[in-house]
Amino acid sequence: MNALSLTLAVILSTPAAPPMAAATEKKPATSTPTIEVPYRLTDTMHILVRAKINGKGPFNFILDTGAPAMILNQATGEKIGLKPDRDSWASLDRLQLEGGLEIPKAKLLMLDMFQLKGMNGLGLAGVELHGVIGYNLLARYRIQYDFTQDKLKWQPLDFTPPPLRRIAKGESSGGQGASLEMLGSVMAGLGGMGLKASTEVRGRGFLGIEVESIPDGGVKISSILPESPAAKAGLQVGDQLKQIKKTAIDTPRDVLKALATIPAGESVEITVERAGKSLTQTAKFGRGF
């Protein structure tokens, strides 16, 4: 991934399909050439490609094999005139990646992701991010990654990804928003295979703040995402960050350094100065990308 809202990251893996789909090798579609798609690595080392939607753009997307679908932020979707259905899905007339790759019958979710909002607010990626391209599109291609080259090779596969479904009301655990309340039918079947998630490796955590430098020195919180771990911990806009865990905070870069290795689920003490008084709050980090 799943901002880094200073804490956010997209965790990328090379395969474009989850384990069940990999059981049967998919063959490239006949008489369809491989297309080279330009990419760049963002300042946070995520793979970024540019795409036009219905002829408008280009927009910046991160490739995220952990995301269930292509996701576009709501403001951009509304600006270009997309009309999502009641489940936030929008069907596209045309989706074109830079390099000439046309993706037919594409659909995306119009959702605001905490992670992207945080990354954009802090300028972590070095560019504005408009969304992510996830499994429902990536699984339709064999993608060759070579980080010594400036293009990815995309070859269409004779494969249609299984449809996604929403988790039924009451199944979700924490109100993280619709983007975290999606499951592929493939993933829903993992339990029947006797598979379970590893508890030994955890992704980076999510705090949900934006910060800015103070002219006289120091860093203050300029924005807090609603219902985020920061909000639940009692942090407030205007708080001057003094220490996160054991890292003293003097610059925004210190914040990034402090948060970069904190995993989801860890509770961390954050010391701030508010109205001339020192306060220490405990935030339990949420799940990032």
Can you walk through the features of this model?
There is one protein chain. This protein is mostly beta strands and 289 residues long. It folds into two domains: 21-193, Beta Barrel (Cathepsin D, subunit A, domain 1); 205-287, Roll (Pdz3 Domain). Helices cover 12% and strands 32% of the residues. The chain contains six helices and 22 strands. It has helices at residues 74-79, 114-122, 135-138, 185-188, 229-232, 252-259, and strands at 35-38, 40-41, 47-53, 56-63, 71-72, 89-91, 95-97, 101-102, 107-110, 131-133, 141-144, 151-156, 164-166, 182-184, 205-206, 209-213, 219-224, 240-244, 247-248, 267-274, 277-284, 286-287. Strands 2, 3, 4, 5, 6, 7, 8, 9 and 10 form a nine-stranded mixed beta sheet that branches. It is elongated, with a radius of gyration of 20 Å. The model is unreliable at 1-24 and 167-202 (pLDDT under 50). This is PDZ domain-containing protein. One of its GO terms (molecular function) is aspartic-type endopeptidase activity.
SSE map:
Blueprint: E1 35-38, E2 40-41, E3 47-53, E4 56-63, E5 71-72, H1 74-79, E6 89-91, E7 95-97, E8 101-102, E9 107-110, H2 114-122, E10 131-133, H3 135-138, E11 141-144, E12 151-156, E13 164-166, E14 182-184, H4 185-188, E15 205-206, E16 209-213, E17 219-224, H5 229-232, E18 240-244, E19 247-248, H6 252-259, E20 267-274, E21 277-284, E22 286-287
Parallel strand pairs: 4-10, 5-9
Antiparallel strand pairs: 1-12, 2-3, 3-4, 3-7, 5-10, 6-9, 7-8, 11-12, 13-14, 15-22, 16-17, 17-18, 18-19, 18-20, 20-21
GO biological process, one term: proteolysis
Protein name: PDZ domain-containing protein
Domain PDZ: 196-249
